[in-house]
Amino acid sequence: MAKATKEKAVAVKENQVIKTDYADLIANGLDNNSQGIQFVQLVAKEMASGTTVREVKASMKSLLKDINIKPIILPTHAESIPVANLIISKYANEIEGIKVSKILSLSARVLADKKASGAKSHIEGIKTFEELDTKTATKKESQTRDGSTKPKVEKATKALNVEDLVSAIYQGITTMKPIGQLTEKGKKEAKVIEGWIMQLQNNQIKAKVNA
């Protein structure tokens, strides 16, 4: 019998330039804002030269093991860094007094609102950082607009005997007074119920014939 072979996980290449600079950022603690901005610029430059988001994350993650105090820039910021660099370049005169965490947060919102293809033109068309903050949708607004808000996953319900299910539907019908009109969704659901009732009736007839 042939032995099952496990596929070896392909290691993601780490960028040593990013890794070295990130080690310095970690060593200098949470409050070094100017170094955080410089790190964003360095990573953006490396990404422009071909380093992928996965490689950026891998380079940063390898240094975060066993560290209790996290640095101001995390692997989860990787996707937003190129946009953050655009913001830093555009509003260079204002950046000194702005926390890098706020820049990264806004860059993530720009990315969600305008996508990668529209981020640059959105930034270039706005004069100040404050105005960019005001004119960029929140992540929740972007998700709602795009219909990408994750639907709630309904918990699996307890299986019911057919008799119990019919009784539950009957109770609902007899205890509620129907008002209003059916929406398209309601009409589809009503058709499903109608089809289910017909199937139930057919099953009952078959059961009597076979008895």
Q: What does this protein look like?
A:
The protein has 211 residues and is mainly α. It is built from 9 helices and no strands. It is elongated and about 80 Å long. The protein starts with 15 loop residues before the first helix and ends with a helix. The model has no long low-confidence stretch (mean pLDDT 83).
Biggest beta-sheet profile: none
- Low confidence ranges: none
Large-scale geometry: elongated
- β-strand amount: under 5%
For the terminal residues, how far apart are their CA atoms?
A: 50 Å
Q: What is the H-and-E element order?
A: HHHHHHHHH
Judged by helices, strands and strand pairing, the structural class is mainly alpha
| Cα Rg | 28 Å
Could you tell me the number of beta strands? 0
Write the layout of secondary structure elements.
Blueprint: H1 16-27, H2 33-48, H3 53-61, H4 81-90, H5 100-124, H6 129-135, H7 139-146, H8 162-175, H9 184-210
Helix pairs in contact: 1-2, 2-4, 4-5, 5-7
